[in-house]
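Below is how a single chain appears once it has passed through the pipeline. First comes the sequence as given, then the structure the pipeline wrote out for it. We keep one example in the README because the format questions we get most often are answered faster by looking than by reading.
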Amino acid sequence: MHDARALIDMGAEAVRRLARRGYSLDLSVLEGLQSRRNQNIRSADELRAESKRVASEVQQTAKQGGDISKLKKRAREIKEQIREIEVDLEKVQDELRTFLLTIPNLPDDRSPDGDSEEFAVEVRRVGTPPSFSFTPKDHVDLGEATGILDFARATKLSGPRFAVARGAGAALERALTTFFLDLHTRRHDYVEHSVPYLVTRKTMTGTGQLPKFEEDLFRTGVADRELFLIPTAEVPLTNLYADEVIPRAELPVAITAQTPCFRSEAGSYGRDTRGLIRQHQFTKVEMVRICDLEEADAELEKMLGHAEACLKELGLAYRVVTLAAGDTGFSAQLTHDLEVWFPSQNTYREISSVSNFGTFQARRANIRTRGTDGKPTLVATLNGSGLPVGRTLAALLEQCQHEDGSIVLPESLVPYLGFRRVSADGTPEA
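Resulting structure:
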């Protein structure tokens, strides 16, 4: 969320930057709400000051035996005027907050122009996409042929966009999760957390999922209690520090968690309905960093390296791109995507987004530290996938496939799996 005064002071510059991401900021509406709020505050303060003066006059006049009826009448009038102003102040503050909650973050000028993945700028490529002497299968055909993935039974249970992993497939999911967590906690110094998968509306609002993305969330509740299933561990991890002042000596905060993620994919309009790429439920290991605003750029590069390390350790070919301003997430200023190679599609597909949110989420969730002057100041928040298990599994199946239908997995996973090869019939083999 933005500081209304800061946006107004930026004026045309704020309008320009938001236009790069396809948002048209109506400054006149913002200025009107802010002006009305400020006028109400001034008027209420003036009336309270007058109320004190009138109360003092009532006491003095009464002591002198004078007529206090007019003064008491004025005191009642002031009290009623203050009440009316406070009602309108509460109303305009709600309107202002609602308006500010719909405004996306200002994109970093380092983000290229454009409004889709086509305008992303490639930063680098790592690894060589495997070449095959046969036509490579996609992960769905591979998973079903080996029997380690079962989409039909998942659909029977829950409908489309779910998957069942069995045997070596389930073991691979578990191995990837532990492998990622070990990498981040032992090598990258993140503190692992186990967090709730159901959170409140306030928590969802703190990281920017609400109000804009309500249609993409699964919601549940009992009686009058409303809860949302998390779309990513970013939500509970970041909000662990909501309404807190983090001691400066504890920055940067580096935390991680493995959770299921739940997304309705309401805006995907039929994209990637086949396989593990875009599901309603999937497992992901998430990284969150919280730091001084001045350190955010350096922390973003550090986190990007942590996400890349996962792919490097698995020997997967991938590339890094910087997203265009109009394709950057609602809460983010700057986002780098990692895209892993999918042989069946002959292209790179997104597997991780690593983003700097500046103070946008911190203002919404009220997360602060103390500046060098000792006064509370907003922190910067960052997050990145490190990595989603389903998409990683899909990429491994495709990049590690052999003509006989077997899968030879990376050596780095053997300690977690106890085997390296999955035969064409799904049997784990050393």
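The mean pLDDT is 96.

See the next section for the split statistics.
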